[in-house]
Write a structure and sequence with these properties.
rod-shaped; mainly alpha; 116 residues; 53% helix
């Protein structure tokens, strides 16, 4: 069987019609008929290259967006962290380590009075 040929299971059920050909119409159609023989492999390769380029561009865009979101998330985390809340260099004089312990708590009260 040839490509595009139609086969029937029961040939007795076929109906055949004889149709007259209009030669003028056929000539007009044949004059305007064009047969293109494109290089399908090249067209397919070009389309695949375009799709790959589009996927790469989308991946680059998504990576840039993710990088920007990570940067924003890190900035928010830095704002929420307690690292910037307490400065140990400026608080060196505020420690009570240098206050000598006494039995009657007078040294601690003097330190607290000086603090105010």
């Amino acid at each position: 069987m040839d490509v595009g040929q139609i086969g029937y299971h029961d040939t007795k059920k076929q109906r055949r019609l004889r149709v007259e050909k209009d030669r003028e119409v056929i000539k007009a159609i044949n004059k305007t008929k064009t047969e293109a023989h494109p290089d399908l492999a090249a067209l397919q390769a070009a389309r695949a290259a375009e799709e790959v380029a589009a996927r790469k561009a989308a991946a680059r865009k998504q990576a840039a967006l993710d990088k920007e979101q990570k940067k924003a998330h890190a900035a928010q985390a830095e704002l929420r962290s307690y690292k910037t809340l307490f400065d140990e260099a400026g608080a060196a004089g505020l420690s009570n380590k240098g206050v000598a312990a006494s039995e009657d708590q007078s040294a601690a009260e003097d330190f607290e009075d000086d603090f105010m």
